[in-house]
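User
Class, as today's exercise, I want you to study this protein, comparing sequence with structure tokens, and judge whether sequence predicts the tokens.
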Amino acid sequence: MTQPQDLLLKWISQACSTEEVKWLEEKIQKLKTDRNERDLIIAFSQVPRKIKRTQLNLGKEEIQQAQAARKNWHPENLNSEQAARILLLLSFSEAKPEEFAGSVKKLLNTADLNEQIAIFSGLPLYPHPEKFLQMAYDGTRNNATSVFDSITLENPYPTENFSEEAYNRLVLKAAFMERPFWKIVGIPERANRQLAELLLDLVSERWSAGREINPLLWRLITPALTEERYREFKERAEKKENLDQEAVALAYQENKYNSTPDGQKWEQIEKKWETQNQQ
């Protein structure tokens, strides 16, 4: 099976010049041979000066290769700088597996915004994922949207490693920040009653303040939508958009009959929401 490191180098080679790739390959070999943390720190910081930032522009075939190499890995949004930094980290992890987590945390302590994004984007690929749990928890508290997104959206690390409480906080914050929470890996499979109650409170607050919410939230609220609460929010939804009424009704039906969420109907609501917000 093709390894993520091989794919990253291949994609970088397609996006960058021969000279840039040569520099990267030399640094990778040096890390594997000398196994020196200082070499990692220097190379990691040199990337923007040695690798031109460009999108990798991965197609359907490349995404399939990525998914085959690592389930739920989504490298399609990586640029060449981020990919190069992740590749350097993975190369050092092979050389110094026991020291790797400490080296990553050391890099993170002085990392700028772009470096943080690269480090967190690599989370699904690092060995001994349990060693990065506190680092990931702390990262989700970051107020920089781009850093938060790199951990939260299309990243399998949280759903595979976060406790239910931590995962719920992550989803709630994403919804509160109006991030595309439906891109969080594990949704809606990890939906639970506690998360549903928290999101129902968020909807209530937003509606009371005269603000809109993404109707897809109701898909996650389903476990908490009892008969009594349905009547309450059905009445409130009647004063909102038709899409809100449709989402509340669908969530209630799924709760009432304990049925598997109807993905097709929720996708229709999502498309209507996107169309509505583009107008």
Notes: The radius of gyration is 22 Å. Residues 18-34 form the longest helix (17 residues).
